[in-house]
Amino acid sequence: MAEPGGGRPVTVSDVQQLVRRKDEIEAQIKACYELLEGQKGVGMHEPLVDAEGFPRSDIDLYQVRTARHNIICLQNDHKAVMKQVEEALHKLHAREKEKHARDEAEALAEAMSQSQSLPQAFAKVNSVSPGSPASVSGLQVDDEIVEFGSVNANNFQNLQNIATVVQHSEGRPLSVTVIRGGRRVHVGLTPKRWAGKGLLG
Question: Could you tell me which SMART domains the record lists for this protein (predicted)?
Fold first, then answer.
């Protein structure tokens, strides 16, 4: 979004500068109009000659002509500055929109790459009994299991696989990896007998 010739993007201070220039021009136009008012209220179009066609003697013709000329020039300048202000604002907004879209795209790309780097889950924790080995290890409801000892998404067939691993690992710590809130979490789980059913709870 670089400016033609300028080679740099429009900034807020550029716009403020243009607005200041616009205010200055408006003040100059107002001063010229006041000068015309002071000349017997001669505006932009009143005749500068009297009924007989002679230059009016009751006003300063040179001042009136100069003021009229200046007003025309200043109004053209004003129009040009207004156009510049408008274009600069458009560019600023377009750049803001572009930046916003770029930020969103980057956030999306980051989220995508994170989700791609997460392994696939093959089971989800539905419940954890209080006081059970699973509860003690820090396993939580809604944790998605991606590794349970030697079982992972590639070799998992059914829950019997997990039951087998649990029976063979009684009293020995198992490495369990889960996805929790979009992040990978490792849990050390030791299957053992407790007050409730099974070795995990």
Answer: PDZ (SM00228)
For the cut 60, the answer to whether the pLDDT of residue 4 exceeds it is no
Residues 6+ apart with CB under 8 A from 64: 36, 39, 42, 48
Same domain (yes/no): 129, 81: no
What's the pLDDT at 3?
47
Domain holding 156, by residue range, is 123-189
Tell whether 111 and 162 lie within a shared domain: no
Q: What tens digit of pLDDT does each residue of 14-33 get?
A: 999 999 999 999 999 999 99
Give the phi and the psi of residue 27 in degrees, each rounded to 5.
-65, -40
Q: Can you tell me the distance from the alpha carbon of 114 to that of 156, in angstroms, rounded to the nearest whole number?
A: 23
Q: What's the total number of domains in the chain? A: 2
Dihedral pair phi/psi, residue 176, rounded to 5°: -120, 130
Question: What single letter denotes the amino acid at residue 27?
Answer: A
Q: Assess whether 25 and 109 both reside in one domain.
A: yes
